[in-house]
Write a structure and sequence with these properties.
10 helices; 12 strands; alpha/beta
Length: 276
């Protein structure tokens, strides 16, 4: 695990990313719903190959931040720079094409489709053919379909799921569905992968395997990964930089050891000690 070093705007990134522009920057990011502030003044910098954590108590605003990054919500204020490009005005589809992919708290697969077809859906931006080429099964259609099959099988092999390619996605065990959702996100060729509670519902053995695979994905694809997670063993064991939210605001940022010892973080999770 690379140590964290200071870069521009008083941000911290892994030492190996220090000489490169960040993959993601949030500057003063915030959103209001009906006059109520959900998140405010979120400042984040993610290195190009960083594994980062976004943590906090329930209702702290973590998933709201993910929804802002992926344009499910449009920010009320602030700036999101993805690979140095301002994403203001981009749609969910456009920001995905620009390099952000995500998974969700609740699994969102196409349950009736095969495992392979779910991955192919993620490839649709990279292996295009025209409507007429598809309707009349012209040569480019078959070429793209062959390429999509090969790429899907390659991605499934990351999780040793290639033998499940023809299974119906909804028939897979819970842990396998979680892995398939990650594979489908990777198929969009992201620069940063957002994982929303990837270990939810997993047993300790599956969680340990997930930690291994997150590192494997980072190393294979040279991308950044940011995760929301309540399993602190996973967060502290894999994340290089951690941002802690409470009531929609950042209360701490730093390496795992710093976060574990931070009084504001301890209070947010455990509550303030009553004076004797």
């Amino acid at each position: 695990m690379s140590k964290m070093v200071s870069v521009q705007r008083q941000a911290m990134v892994p030492e190996r990313d220090a000489g490169k522009s960040p993959i993601l920057e949030c500057i003063g990011l915030g959103i209001d719903f009906g006059g109520l502030t959900a998140v405010d003044e979120i400042n984040l910098t993610i290195g190009r190959t960083e594994i980062a954590g976004l943590i906090g108590p329930n209702g702290a605003g973590k998933t709201t931040v993910f929804n802002l990054l992926t344009k499910v919500y449009q920010p009320t204020r602030g700036t999101i720079l993805l690979n140095g490009i301002d994403t203001h005005g981009m749609s969910t589809v456009q920001v995905n094409q620009a390099g952000i992919a995500r998974t969700f708290q609740n699994i969102r697969l196409f349950s009736a489709l095969s495992v392979e077809d779910n991955v192919k859906i993620g490839l649709h931006n990279q292996l295009p053919y025209s409507m007429w080429e598809g309707v009349f099964r012209l040569p480019r259609y078959w070429k793209r379909e062959k390429e999509a099959h090969e790429k899907a099988m390659e991605l499934l092999s990351i999780f040793d799921m290639q033998d499940m390619a023809k299974y119906r996605a909804g028939s897979l065990p819970y842990g396998a569905q979680r892995r398939l959702e990650i594979v489908r996100a990777l198929a969009t060729n992201p620069g940063i992968l957002l994982l929303d509670e990837p270990a939810a519902g997993m047993n300790p053995s599956e969680t340990a395997e997930l930690m291994y695979n997150i590192r494997k994905i980072r190393d294979m694809f040279h991308i950044a990964i940011m995760l929301i997670e309540h399993d602190m063993n996973l967060v502290m064991g894999i994340c290089e930089g951690i941002c802690v939210l409470n009531y929609g605001k950042v209360i701490a940022k730093g390496a795992p050891a710093e976060i574990q010892a931070n009084p504001a973080v301890i209070e947010a999770y455990l509550g303030k000690k009553k004076e004797a």
